[in-house]
Amino acid sequence: MFQNKTARLKPAGRAAALGLLLLGAALAPAGAETLAVGPNAPYKTLGEAMAKLKNGDRITLAPGEYFECAIIGNDNVTIEGTGADGAAVLTDKACGGKGLLVTQGDNITIRNITLTRARVPDMNGAGIRNESPRLLVDRVRFINNQNGILTGGPSEGGTMIVKDSYFEKNGGCFPACTHGIYANRLALLRVEGSTFVETKQAHHIKSRAARTEVLNTTTRDGPEGTASYHVDISNGGDLIVRGSTMVKGPKAENRSAIIMIGAEGVTQRTREIKVENNRVTNEGGYETTFVVNNTAEDAILSGNRYTGRIIPLRGDGRADK
Fold first, then answer.
1. Do the Cβ atoms of 163 and 135 come closer than 8 Å?
2. Contact at 8 Å (CB) between 180 and 151?
3. Closest CA to 70 of 20, 160, 5, 17
4. Does 78 score more than 80 pLDDT?
5. What's this model's pTM, rounded to 2 decimal places?
6. How many CB atoms lie under 10 A from the CB of residue 25?
7. Which stretches within the chain are classed as H helix?
8. DSSP state, 95?
9. Which one, of 321, 16, 8, lies nearest residue 158 by Cα?
């Protein structure tokens, strides 16, 4: 197990170009380096590499378990595991009372690592605490954290894309609720090709973003999972849910809905709600509603397939025929 005190780097200024969604694709500046971390690498700990990190650099983590965390204040940087999926593991240690990785610079990529067992005294610890204007999360495993990903602060008005990632046994209500993903006031949250299983009590995905997209993603309670809503759009905003699989379990904490829109009051403009070509299953003996829409914008449901006791829609809109 590799250990080191984490170096804190100065936070970068907020980026302006919200429309650029090519996260992680910026050209590295001249002199950018790859800083390799591992027992047989130039840097033995993540902390050593963080102390040398510059804008545009890349840190690679060899397979193994690291009792470390990091606050990432540089721009256009990547933290990436090598080897098999998720073989590089950050565990247990939280930075700044926030999380295993705290992203504060602009245009940060986190790829191919496992983040597990994040705990902090205020019960709001996260695998990733996102305070970055632009963040890409790619092939990351989140296991048994208080939050999988929690956004806040300078990330508001920014973008976060989560792709091909795996969330298991995150969340809880002790007493405040934490979630698989909790996205505050982003301009865009996109979750694509990802899987959420056995979220505890709270929501698989909770979003206050102006626009939320859930694409080709699986949310599954399982026989013991106690999740509430699968997608909670707390205050309205645009929503696209497409090509996804949602399975509500027999021990769901809240059985009233699978997708809930505006349950905490509609406080932002909603112009588009499209829920299409999803497979939806209720494995409980109770009745549930697929989409509850508390906004004045019509929810358009099309091409969805249902198994179990499911009412397609409550509220304004047009349901599947």
1. no
2. no
3. 5
4. yes
5. 0.90
6. 11
7. 46-52
8. B
9. 16
